[in-house]
Write a structure and sequence with these properties.
alpha+beta, globular, 6 helices
């Protein structure tokens, strides 16, 4: 009995130390999957989580692009630009909700998958469009711009994977830049007047489109 107690007493610090080590590793991995500026998931982490959410037929894929971000950055400085991106990220994450996922794909482009439980995605995104145009928190009122939102309902495109749905949302997002409102990708067909002059690498943001 005493030998068993001695063994357990000796092993306890080792077990505790290993548990702390594992916890530290997990926290480090979680931080590595988060964008350091906005706190959103990185592109790779977003992709993994978004693909799981697409199993839900109520899933809606959203692509958001900050309009005239370079002008804001050039005029008011990088700190103001960073504050604007962080503000967009917080507001997008709040609108997406705990059931969804948001990520920063890079630069001033964000993506989200939300679960439209009550069929009000169009109204939600219209409201979000207005909220995103408000000045960034803690910044002068001039540090503000619009954010173009393109979105697609996964159920409208059966069999479409994340890359394909993001491509549809991308088309709708460019239409939104002209319309100054959120635009939904149409069912079963591509938008007319598709803008082909895209930023390098946009189409490959999360892999090749099938």
């Amino acid at each position: 009995m005493s030998e068993t107690l001695t063994a357990l007493t000796t092993a306890a610090p080792l077990v505790a130390g290993w548990a702390v080590h594992v916890l530290t590793l997990r926290r480090g991995l979680s931080r590595a999957r988060r964008d350091p500026l906005t706190g959103l998931w990185t592109r790779d982490a977003f992709t993994r989580k978004a693909r799981r959410l697409l199993r839900d037929e109520r899933a809606v894929v959203v692509l958001a692009d900050v309009d005239r971000f370079k002008q804001v950055n050039d005029r008011y400085g990088h700190a103001a630009g960073d504050a604007l991106l962080a503000s967009v990220a917080r507001r997008l994450a709040h609108a997406t909700g705990r059931a969804g996922v948001c990520g920063r794909l890079g630069g001033d482009e964000f993506a989200a998958v939300l679960i439209d439980a009550d069929g009000t995605a169009a109204d939600l995104l219209a409201l979000l469009h207005g909220v995103l145009a408000r000045p960034a928190e803690g910044q002068p009122s001039e540090v503000a711009t619009t954010v173009s939102l393109g979105w697609v309902r996964a159920a409208d495109h059966p069999g479409g994977d994340l890359s394909a749905l993001l491509a549809r949302a991308d088309e709708a997002m460019y239409e939104a830049k002209r319309a100054d409102r959120p635009v939904k990708a149409p069912f079963g067909s591509r938008l007319r007047g598709l803008v082909t002059a895209r930023r390098s690498g946009r189409r490959d943001a999360v892999g090749e489109v099938a």
